[in-house]
Structure formats: C-alpha cells, structure tokens
Amino acid sequence: MAIWNLGSINVDTVFSLPHMPSPGETLSSTARNVFLGGKGTNMSVAAARAAAIVHHIGAVGDDGEWTVDRLMEYGVDTRFIARVDEDTAQAMIMVDPKGENIVILHPGANVAIPQAILQEAMAEAQTGDWLLIQNETNLQRTAATLGKQMGLQVAYAAAPFDADRVKAVLPYLNLLFLNAVEAAQLEQATGKRPQDLGVRDVIITLGGDGADWFGPEGHRHFDAVPVTPVDTTGAGDTFTGYVLAGLDRGHPMAQAINLATRAAALMVTRHGTADVIPDLKELEDFRP
C-alpha cells in the first residue's frame, strides 16, 4: 500500500522572538533559520519517517530545486513534483519563548499544480491506497473526486480552514483531520457535529489536551504526552502523517493515534519543521 499526498512545499523562514509583536511594533529576532516546510511536505516526511511508502504530488519554482532534493533524501517519491513558472511557496514563521507561533504564507507554486501531474500520479495508484489532501494547494476537489472513483481512501487535513472548501470535499472523505478551532468553525458552517458529518473517521487534535476520535464505534479521547514545548510548528502535520502511515501499514486506528501522539509530542520539543520530524527509532528512544 502507499500514500499519495497532494501537498504543499514551502521554504520556511523561522524567526525566534522574545514575544509576539504588537501592531506597529518593530522587534528584533533572537534567531533566524530556514527549513523545508509546508503542511503537505511535513506530512509526507512524517509518513515516510513512520515507514510508509509516500508519493508527493506538488509543484515548485526554479528556486525550489533544493526542496525536492531534500524530500527525496527523506525517502519521499518526488517524481510527481512539477516545475512551474511561479516562485516556490514561502512561509514566515514567528515563534515566541512558549513555542506558540504565527505564520504568514505566500502560496506561490502550491496553487499552480498542473492537473496533468495529478493525473499522471493517480495512474499509478492502487485500490486501497491513501490519498491525502490539504487546503494549501489547488486541485483538492478534483483529486478527491478522482480518488473516490478509483477506490482510494481519501484523507483531508482541513487547514488553513475554509468552510466552503471543506464542504466541497466532505462527500468523498474517509478520514478528516481538524483542530479544535476548525471543528467549531465547521460545526457552525454545517450545523453538524463531527460524528454527524457522514465521514467514517474524524480526528480532532486538541494540542496539549490530546485528540478526539469519532469513528464507527463512537467517540474516544486520547491524552497528550506531557512535554515542555519549544516550537509547536508542524506538530499537527507530524500527527497526521504518523496516523496515516500507521493505518497504511495495517494498524488499528487507536494504535496509529497513540504513536502519532508520541511523535507530535517529540516534535514540539524541537525547533524547525520537516527537517526535524522524528523517525520511528527516535520514538522508541523517547522518554518524556
């Protein structure tokens, strides 16, 4: 089995700040680092580090060749990443001493993925494979429709949140990931609770409070692993990638969520995004 990820690829510039700036405030950073990032990239790397076979579908500009090389180094299939006449997407991330962050995103090539590259990738997918989509790219509904027609299992991470885009793909989904704020926004937009959305499995991440799973057998809560966070960037993406990798490898949902919770906990103790996502060996050695 395999995971096919129609996902964003970003260059993440991370500024460490003494505090989050107020309107009109000029603030000097205490550090600046450049990482490989993007929600899609983070999820691909996390799933690959959790021992899944991962094919990334996306796009970069002429300035992004190094991001493709890095993805390949992390074990991700990069054959379906197009080169387009747009800048590679960029994210400016501000992180305070408590690990909280603010992200400013320039979408660039992420919203210029050619439909032809998606169709080329899907021609190699097999019934039962996972298709993963997020809100940082174009072609989401096209991909979800095609994936459903082909007998793929379709997973959707609904961030950055847009109620109309989420509602457009709901009929095609097997698995939906939301955080607590997104879940509240979706309930307001649809009038439906997570268990009433018509999606087989809905997972709501709660940060330091863990996660809730609404599945065929009802609701189950999973506690977070207690750690002291230094940077929460990419933790949710790490969780998503690990859950999908576990399911793709045949693990029960509860086992996949428990492992993903540990991966996300270890992730928030590190500064950075895709480049610092833990692998399975690191999780074995992790003693919170």
From TrEMBL:
Binding site for substrate: 10-12, 38-42, 136, 237
Pathway field: Carbohydrate metabolism; D-ribose degradation; D-ribose 5-phosphate from beta-D-ribopyranose: step 2/2
GO MF, one example: metal ion binding
One BP term from GO: D-ribose catabolic process
EC numbers for this chain: 2.7.1.15
Cofactor note: Requires a divalent cation, most likely magnesium in vivo, as an electrophilic catalyst to aid phosphoryl group transfer. It is the chelate of the metal and the nucleotide that is the actual substrate.
Residues at the active site: 237
Carbohydrate kinase PfkB domain location: 23-278
Transmembrane parts of this sequence: none
Keyword terms: ATP-binding, Carbohydrate metabolism, Cytoplasm, Kinase, Magnesium, Metal-binding, Nucleotide-binding, Potassium, Transferase
Family matches, as Gene3D superfamilies: 3.40.1190.20
Chain positions recorded as K(+) binding sites: 231, 233, 267, 270, 272
One GO CC annotation: cytoplasm
Subunit annotation: Homodimer.
HAMAP family: Ribokinase
Family per similarity comment: Belongs to the carbohydrate kinase PfkB family. Ribokinase subfamily.
Protein name as catalogued: Ribokinase
Organism field: Loktanella salsilacus
